[in-house]
Amino acid sequence: MSGRKQFDVGAALDQAMRVFWQRGYADASLGALCSATGLGRGSLYGTFGGKDALFRQCLDRYESIYSEQYGQALAAHPGNPVRALEAFFDVILTRIADPSVPAGCLVAQSATQSATLEQENSAKVRDLLDTQRRRVRAALADSAADAQVLDELATFVVAVNQSLAVLSRAGTSDSELRAVARLACTTVADTLARATSGGAASD
Questions:
Q1: Which letter, b or e, does each residue of 97-107 get, where b requires 16 or more Cβ atoms within 10 Å of its Cβ?
Q2: How many angstroms separate the CA atoms of 23 and 42, rounded?
């Protein structure tokens, strides 16, 4: 039919996402994007609106694939924040170990280049990190610890998550990454225990 797209837009978006994931925004050339998607420059712009718009759609695509998995893990153990974080890190490390996807994390890769991104895309990356932090913070909410402690722990967990992605790109083994995650969960557990016992002692 005249005017009908003769390719799978979703598949093209997935391939473009892999390019940004592997190379980062700065090194994801239009040539590489066209080669990966099988589209000419005119079709790429006509379908996705250019590199910046395509990158933003890839961030949305990445979020749609993984965000629900993270949210389910964090919500799977109500009343047990440490177990929720263990489940969260397990999902992350399983994705990192998956040979069918690029190493690391598209959000972590993009965060390192935030200063060079178009403003809307930089804000999108920040929003994805903030969303992750809010979900972690919600998983910690059942604790009796002070709100400031929980806020700081949520930021700590997100920082560890992003560090795991960076370390994986540098070739750190799965066993080493899982050791980092275990230590992070132990740190959270110890901090919550101290904060709770301290609050009880002061009553």
A1: eeeebbbbbbb
A2: 22
CA dist., res. 41 & res. 151, Å (int): 45
| Domain assignments of the chain as residue spans, ordered by start | 60-202
For the chain, percent helix, then strand, then coil, each to nearest 5?
80, 0, 20
DSSP-assigned letter for residue 171: T
> From start to end of 94-167, where are the E strands?
none
DSSP letters, 43-55, are HHHHHH-SHHHHH
Could you please state the CATH topology (level 3) that the domain comprising 60-202 is classified under: Tetracycline Repressor; domain 2 (1.10.357)
| pLDDT single digits (tens) 19-28 | 999 999 999 9
> pTM of the entire structure?
0.88
3-state secondary structure of 77: coil
